[in-house]
Amino acid sequence: MYQWKIALRSLLYRKSQYVSLFLVCLFGVAISLGAIAVSTGMIFSLNQKARIYYGGEIALMCSEGHGLAINNYQEKYEIVKSFFDDDAVVVPRLDFDARHSSFYFEGVQALQQTIKGVNFEAERALLSTFNFVEGGLDAVTEKNAVFISAPIAKMLGCVLGDEITFQLQTVEGYLNTVPVIVRGIFQDSSVFGMYTSYMDFEFLKEAYGRPAHFANRICIHFPKHSTLTDAEYHKIYDKLATKLNMYPYVTNKDDYIDADDTFTTETWGFIPLPANLNDVKIMEVAMTAVISFIIVMLTLIIIAGIGSTYRVLIMKRINEIGVYMALGMKKRAIIATLLSESFVLLVFGCLAGIILSVLLCGAISTVNFSFIPSFDLFLFKGNLVPRVDVIKSVLVIVSVIVVTLLAVLYSTLKSIKIMPVAALATTE
User: Fold this and answer.
1) Are residues 303 and 396 in contact, defined by beta-carbon separation less than 8 angstroms?
2) How far apart are CA 268 and CA 63, in angstroms?
3) 246 in helix, strand or coil?
4) Residue 305: CB partners within 8 Å, gap ≥ 6?
5) Which residues lie below 8 Å from residue 320, measured CB to CB, with a gap of 6+?
6) Which of 22, 38, 134, 178 could be cross-linked to 185 through a Cys-Cys bond (beta carbons 3.0 to 4.6 Å apart)?
7) 3-class DSSP state of 96
8) Please, what is the Cα angle at 116 between 112 and 118, to 5 degrees?
9) How far apart are CA 177 and CA 112, in angstroms?
């Protein structure tokens, strides 16, 4: 126990020598943990954008070998819904390829990529996470309401409440024009938002010329779960396979879509959210790799800086070590004293780093980054929202403490090999 008392007294007595070490630990840990939290938040926001776009964590598709179509979807919908508790949102959707469709307003045309036919009320929990610049779910009062992105609204020159014209090609190949009313303008210039709009499921089907019993997706969203594990996805798949003819579990949605022309019977595709994100997975992996590299470099700098400086300090304290040995203090006790000293410094440095990282993340989360083109993919309602990754954060802190202590231990072992008389003769 006395080793801890000696260590604390030494830190207080030599506090001016340890300020720089404390600051290196503080800022290094703060920046590392901040980078982890920001990158984790960015990836979470990307996944949240994908949830809105794909309708939740799971999309069920169906084909008999000639395109994706769920005929008499109400019957299949009831079967699917029976497998889930009330906290799961199960809804039919119509994903409409809008590459040959446009919005028109006062002579201005804006092309579209995808129109999502949704149930605004049933999907309120999911759609409410939009960063609405104007309007929103509470503004939806008509069947022909539409949500469009802010860049498209700017291109058209329209505002909330304006009636715009939606021109599309029907299933029979005819051109159809229908008036729609802008009831929501959301801030999103990402691949999931800029050229994607949202309309009422039934209204879009009618405009497209599809029968009332048609859908091409049944989507499942779990509002109370931030993510699903691979095991949870497989468990849900196995349950559905007891009632539906399921295609083998896929990790890439294209595996199911490409096999469409081989189906001779009604075959269902189970598309988990990660299987929809293969196109952006490379970007996510690259971002994670860059952040990880930065964190590893920072951690190594902390370890090298504290470890090498501590070695110099210990070498300068040879005289003090000689006094300890002359007083009969065992080598083990000397090692414990110096390790306790460095451990206390590291723990307080890491705690201060954690506090500073929380403050930095709080400050970053107040800044609206929507002004950066295409950065909306990583934003939640226009802001970066850092999220704690406990495993990575603990790994950084433990690495800093353990490896630095090992460096201190190595220096201490070299120092205590000196004879007490020689140590006493050494001056700092």
Assistant:
1) no
2) 7
3) strand
4) 21, 24, 28
5) none
6) 134
7) strand
8) 150
9) 14
Q: Is-contact 217 61, C-beta < 8 A?
A: yes
CB hemisphere CA count around 75 (13 angstroms): 6
Q: Specify the DSSP class assigned to residue 247.
A: P
Query: Contact 51/272 with Cβ under 8 angstroms?
Result: no
CA distance from start to end of the chain: 27
Beta strands in 98-162 (DSSP E): 102-105, 108-111, 114-118, 132-135, 145-149
**Tens place of pLDDT for every residue, the chain, 428 residues?**
566 666 666 666 666 767 877 888 888 889 889 989 998 898 888 888 889 999 999 999 999 877 889 988 999 999 999 999 888 999 999 999 998 899 999 999 999 999 999 999 999 999 998 889 999 999 999 999 999 999 999 999 999 999 999 999 999 889 999 999 999 999 887 778 889 999 999 999 999 999 999 999 999 999 988 788 999 999 999 999 999 999 999 999 999 999 988 898 999 999 999 998 876 676 677 777 877 887 788 777 777 777 777 777 666 666 666 666 666 677 777 777 778 878 888 888 899 999 999 999 999 999 988 777 778 888 887 888 999 999 989 988 998 888 888 877 877 777 666 545 454 455 55
State the pTM of this model. 0.80
> In the numeric block, which tokens belong to residue 386?
């850092």
Sequence-ordered list of residues with C-beta below 8 angstroms from that of 202, at least 6 positions apart, any chain: 117, 143, 212
Closest by CA position to 220, among listed 207, 208, 235: 235
3-state secondary structure of 93: strand
